[in-house]
Amino acid sequence: MKKIALALAATLATAGAALAQAPEVKDADGNGTFSLTEVQAAYPSATEEAFKAADTDASGELSADELAKAVEAKSFDAK
């Protein structure tokens, strides 16, 4: 049981460090969602194709959840 707890703690620490290094996307217009332009301000290599793939509800904007999933999946990192 101790080994599982230690492995979980190590995993969480690693994930936290990775997220801490990710640039913050600012909601410049304050509408509660993120446009391609707002995403590209933090991730200049973000393509329209990657943005549309992350926009799972096809709203034309990313919700905070969609953005978090895309960042976690490294969808906007330069390939």
Descriptive report:
It is globular, with a radius of gyration of 15 Å. It has 4 helices and no strands. The longest helix has 20 residues, at 2-21. Residues 5-9 have low confidence and may be disordered. It starts with a helix and ends in a 7-residue tail after the last helix. With 79 residues, it is mostly helical. It has one domain: Recoverin, domain 1 (Orthogonal Bundle).
State the gist of this model.
The protein is mainly α. Helix content is 54%, strand content 0%.
When the domains are counted, the total is 1
Shape: globular
Strand content: under 5%
Structural class: mainly alpha
Largest sheet, in brief, is: none
Report the top-level CATH class: Mainly Alpha
Determine the N-to-C terminus distance.
Answer: 39 Å
The succession of helices and strands, N to C, reads HHHH
Task: Spell out the blueprint of helices and strands.
Elements: H1 2-21, H2 36-42, H3 48-54, H4 64-72
